[in-house]
Design brief:
260 residues; mainly beta; hypothetical protein yedk fold; globular
Length: 260
């Protein structure tokens, strides 16, 4: 099975397509993605990842052919008793963060240091997830070109990539004038906060957020970028999602997908 790479702008549907040799099955290759496609609906994602429960927010989630950081994205995770599908904010906000702005810088976590960095180590121990993507965009600058060339990468069989990710839950006060809060379903506002009839009070919200783990690119994807998301094979999903898994043994999963 070949990996398909498409040239064109993010969101375009009529790009010229051609295939290059790539990985097959759940270990398809991809570069670090600042934009990706989420076209499968909640039912398709739930079926593919054998999800036990789908949230109302996930059922309401619409296809997005140019998914960007700070938007809500599908996340598959386990609460220890069942596998769930929900939508979380893309850009991790650690529990200790003073506000939500840090999430703008934490859309990716490096596999080499994810177990050690203060921003990620708690989530790596107990809150791991899969972030599904139907395809993603990467950019390169051909020699002599004045602008970067966008590339779209997808699986020819139409199945989604299974990006290794982390998730967190942050609760705190949100000033009513703060425009950095997620506007989608990832932000759950607390009852009784932000009362419009009384004095202006900081609004209490709980935000669930996520990040994609990246590692060194394999030989094929190094032609476009020096890093790539960690892509989990189906055989690793149970162990990765289980909150009770020993995190010291999970590093063996955080490796580049094989080129063939």
């Amino acid at each position: 099975m070949d990996e398909q790479i498409v040239t064109g702008e993010p969101g375009a549907q009529d790009d010229h397509r051609f295939a290059v040799p790539g990985a097959s099955g759940a270990n398809k290759v991809c570069a670090v993605c600042g934009r990706f496609v989420s076209s499968s609906d909640a039912g398709e994602i739930a079926g593919y990842f054998e999800v036990d429960q789908v949230s109302e927010q996930a059922l309401d989630h619409h296809a997005n052919y140019n998914t960007a950081p700070s938007t809500d994205v599908f996340v598959v995770y386990s609460d220890g008793s069942m596998r769930r599908l929900d939508t979380f904010h893309w850009g991790l906000v650690p529990r200790w963060a003073k506000d939500l702005k840090i999430g703008n810088r934490l859309i990716n976590a490096r596999a080499e240091t994810v177990s050690e960095k203060p921003s990620f180590r708690a989530a790596f121990r107990r809150r791991r997830c899969i972030m599904p993507a139907d395809g993603f965009y990467e950019w390169s600058r051909p020699e002599g070109a004045g602008r970067k060339q966008p590339w779209y990468i997808q699986r020819p069989d139409g199945e989604p990539f299974a990006f290794a990710g982390l998730w967190e839950e942050w609760t705190g006060s949100l000033p009513t004038t703060d425009d950095t809060a997620p506007s989608g379903h990832s932000a759950r506002r607390h009852e009784g906060s932000g009362d419009e009839d009384g004095p202006s009070q900081p609004e209490q919200v709980t935000v669930r957020s996520s990040t994609i783990i990246t590692g060194a690119a394999n030989e094929k994807m190094a032609e476009l970028h020096n890093r790539m998301p960690i892509i989990l094979p189906a055989s690793a999903w149970d162990e990765w999602l289980d909150p009770g898994s020993d995190p010291t043994g999970l590093s063996r999963l955080l490796v580049p997908a094989p080129p063939s």
